[in-house]
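Standup notes
- DV: blocked on the single-chain target, sequence here:
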Amino acid sequence: MLTVGITTITVAANNKIVTIMPKRKKDQLTQDAEDLYEALNQLVRVYQFRDRERICCYDVSVTQCYAVETLVKRGALRLQLLAEEMFLDKSTASRVIDALERKGYVSRVEDDEDRRAVKIQVTDAGRGLYEKIRGDLIAEERAMIENLSAEARQGALTLLRQITRTTQKRCGLTNDACSDARQLNQN
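- DV (later): unblocked, structure below
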């Protein structure tokens, strides 16, 4: 006996019933989404490896480098806010800052708005380290894109920025009210 449905084929032979689900042809959007997933997955892996190999040459971990970068870009921050910016818990961020402070890349300063609180700020040595690492990584990026047309480079940047914004929104990483509060807390 053979029964054919729209999405299944059922075959009865030797008192056994077997249902076969034929492969569905994927629509182009689904195929593109799968290809994007694979491409981004590989990119993230390569970048994580690259960062670990390049940044650790400077006697800091990738996480420590991100902390210095955040402080350079955002200015002095309280530990809790720095932890939130880096998606770390406060105790992990504290250990990262302790190590950076021992190395002379950050310092703790009194918060002008609340003398009981402390802010973390990058030192001149930390800023110099950040500029050196950033310069090396940008030179590497430049070499990767030098053979692409200006149009292709701009298209790639637009796509990456759009994917980043969409991902942040979907993961709940952007909250304008929280962002506004962070800005007030920072100043």
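- Follow-up: Residues 66 and 86 are 8 Å apart (CA to CA).
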